[in-house]
Specification:
CATH topology of the largest domain: Rossmann fold
Strand order of the largest sheet: 7-6-5-8-9-10
Distance between the termini: 61 Å
Number of helices: 10
Strand content: 25-35%
Oligomer: single chain
Helix content: 25-40%
Shape: globular
Largest sheet: 6 strands, mixed
Order of helices and strands: HHEEEEEHEEHHEHEHHHEHEEEE
CATH superfamily of the largest domain: von Willebrand factor, type A domain
Length: 372
């Protein structure tokens, strides 16, 4: 064999070896995708689509949706249709203002559970009074973990009691930190919901609203609130002699004064008995306005909804509306093209494709990116 031929074969061998080494160092595309996905994490987007009359549109497909994050198109990698099961954390406000309505709350909640579909799983959280060190305090009570056992859920609802305060923010934290503290199983990914029956007026929580809102934002849970108007009952007990009146908690009074801003010159007092009837009513009005704003903020950002009701008698119909909406939710999922783990809030927009004019979509509005 001539030396030129040998040289050529040697060069080809070197070239082939280099190519093999290069291939060994470069992971296959699927592995690259997996690395990116692990780093960015799946973003879950619950979605409901209705026609111009408000009727849910069913039997849609993945190609009927387009998702944008901060204006940039995202590739949908997950899609679940409306018949997929849901996991629901049912939070029942059983504070003192609802004591006489406990039976109505239990019946309405049972009606909600009965309205769900086979395969849907429910957890029950309520409030109770706990005595520690000789002091009574209102605390959240996880009465039942997630289960699809309807008999167990009926038994859990029968064990619901009342409390001497409203640890509402703590209840929201309990949903995130206890009920949904582990990654969802495959069939429930993007299909978790909070359903809260409450007036939203917190009185005794250790947690604050901003903390609870932030954790709910991160979780991707879609939030529904059945907002009960307890204000007439509450204010009726506020007025008159200090000794027999319903009192604000210290936290509620501080929340009222904070609403004026740090530069306010409003004279402040934390002594309930120093408050006149006019100021008591002003504080009550502001507390209910704050509760309304907070519930609407959480529900809107998550793609959920607030259902106002006049009293607990109307709660059953509201629960049915929530169950119907849960049964018509789609779930979209994508791995963000933005790999930064900077803790920034990112806006999500969902667009509809190939649907009749007038179709409307309600979806999660955004999420907080993870941090290293």
């Amino acid at each position: 064999m001539k030396s030129g031929t040998l040289c050529l074969l040697f060069l080809l061998a070197l070239s082939f070896g280099a190519a093999v080494v290069a291939q060994d160092k470069t992971p296959p595309k699927d592995e690259e995708d997996e690395v990116v996905r692990v780093e960015t994490e799946l973003v879950e987007v619950p979605v409901i689509v209705t026609d111009r009359t408000g009727k849910a549109l069913l039997n849609l497909r993945q190609n009927n949706f387009a998702v944008f994050e901060d204006g940039k198109t995202q590739e949908l990698t997950e899609f679940a249709a409306t018949n997929a099961p849901f996991e629901v954390a049912l939070l029942l406000d059983t504070s003192g203002s609802t004591r006489s309505d406990l039976h109505l709350i239990q019946r309405a909640a049972q009606s909600f559970v009965d309205s769900l579909r086979p395969g849907d799983r429910v957890s029950v959280i309520a409030f109770k009074t706990s005595v520690e060190g000789g002091r009574a305090a209102a605390v959240t009570d996880l009465i039942s973990p997630l289960t699809d056992n309807r008999a167990a859920l009926r038994s859990a609802l029968e064990r619901v009691t009342t409390s001497n305060g409203t640890p509402y923010y703590d209840g929201l934290m309990k949903v995130v930190e206890t009920v949904f503290n582990t990654q969802a199983a495959e069939q429930f990914r993007g299909r978790r919901a909070l359903v809260a029956l409450t007036d939203g007026v917190d009185s005794t929580s250790m947690s604050g609203f901003e903390e609870a809102r932030e954790e709910l934002d991160k979780s991707g849970i879609v939030s529904y609130f059945i907002q009960v108007d307890t204000r007439p009952f509450f204010e009726e007990g506020l007025l008159g002699p200090c000794e027999g009146a319903i009192r604000f908690s210290q936290a509620q009074i501080r929340r009222y004064y904070r609403s004026f801003g740090s530069r306010s010159n409003v004279e402040q007092t934390t002594n309930f008995c120093q408050l006149g009837d006019f100021e008591r009513l002003a504080i009550s009005k502001k507390l209910y306005e704050i509760a309304d704003s907070e519930m609407n903020a959480i529900s809107r950002r998550s793609g959920g909804k607030v259902f106002p009701v006049a009293d607990f008698t109307d709660a059953r119909n509201a629960f049915k509306s929530v169950a119907a909406e849960i049964g018509t939710k789609y779930s979209l999922g994508y791995y963000s093209s933005n790999g930064k783990r900077d803790g920034a809030y990112r806006k999500i927009r969902v667009e509809l494709r190939g649907l009749p004019a007038g179709a409307l979509v309600r979806a999660r509005e955004g999420y907080t990116a993870p941090v290293n």
